[in-house]
Fold this protein.
Amino acid sequence: MNTLLRPWSLDDAPIILAASGEERMDRQFTSQIDSLPAAEEWIALLTSRRDEDTAYSFAVLHEGVPVGNVAVSSVDRRHLTGWVSYWMREEARGKGLATRACREVSEFAFSELGLFRLELAHRLDNPASCRVATNAGFAVEGVERARLLYDGVRFDTETHARLATD
């Protein structure tokens, strides 16, 4: 990996806390992050998942500072598959960082983890995430109706995949 991605460290907790407070970012975290200890717990969870070989999360760096996250999770060694996800802080959006990060984490998953198929999905009302996926080499595979539930509202998602042979 180059200097675009690195594993999260406990020193990044203030950045995670700030990111979690941005609009709609609460959907990106598995638990509520409203304090530095909660941010540290989130980072510790990422570390334990890496140790368990179930998920690999990386800080996306811009000028050496974490501005986003990219991950391969749901690592399935039987079928050699994984699930890619990403988010960027507001100030980092629109700079191509998410696309570059998705490309790099895909190469990591294929070459270092030996995975064959990577999947991701985004809400249909998120065209920016769709551009990231397609620009990172993920082909559209279809729509999953009413896949996600946020605040009592169901949302359709579009699924994408990238193969090691693509």
About this structure: The beta strands are 5-7, 56-62, 65-76, 81-88, 117-123, 139-150, 153-163. The radius of gyration is 15 Å. The mean pLDDT is 94. Helices lie at 13-20, 36-51, 97-111, 127-135.
